[in-house]
Amino acid sequence: MSKEKKRFLLRLDHALYSALEKWAADEFRSVNAQIEFILKQAAKKAGRFPPEPKTGKKENKL
């Protein structure tokens, strides 16, 4: 199940884009995925991103 992602235009300084491009390549990501990763990490650190739901089965306690 894929979530629809919001699309928007982002203008970046050429030097910043080049740095992101190299960083993304070093981590085997696209530039877009790298930007999303960085923004998620920053939002989590700032307490602005909801926690991800825990996966796994619940134990049946009888």
Folded structure, characterized:
This protein has 62 residues and is mainly alpha-helical. The chain has a domain at 14-45. The chain has 2 helices and no strands. The protein has helices spanning 14-26, 31-45. Helix 1 crosses helix 2. The longest helix is centred in the middle third of the chain and has 15 residues, at 31-45. This is Toxin-antitoxin system HicB family antitoxin. InterPro entries: Arc_rbn_hlx_hlx, Ribbon_hlx_hlx.
Number of helices: 2
Measured between the Cα atoms of the first and last residue, the distance is: 33 Å
The oligomerization state is: single chain
Output the helix-strand order. Answer: HH
* Low-confidence runs of at least 5 consecutive residues: none
Extended strand count:
0
Rg (C-alpha, Å): 17 Å
Query: How would you state the average pLDDT, rounded?
Result: 89
Cα shape: elongated
Summing up helix and strand content along with how strands pair, one would put the structural category as mainly alpha
Q: Major beta sheet, specifics? A: none
Portion of residues in beta strands equals: under 5%
Helix content: 40-55%
Comma- or semicolon-separated keywords:
62 residues; mainly alpha; 45% helix; Arc_rbn_hlx_hlx; Toxin-antitoxin system HicB family antitoxin; Ribbon_hlx_hlx
Topology (elements, then pairings):
Blueprint: H1 14-26, H2 31-45
Helix pairs in contact: 1-2
Protein name: Toxin-antitoxin system HicB family antitoxin
InterPro entries: Arc_rbn_hlx_hlx (IPR013321), Ribbon_hlx_hlx (IPR010985)
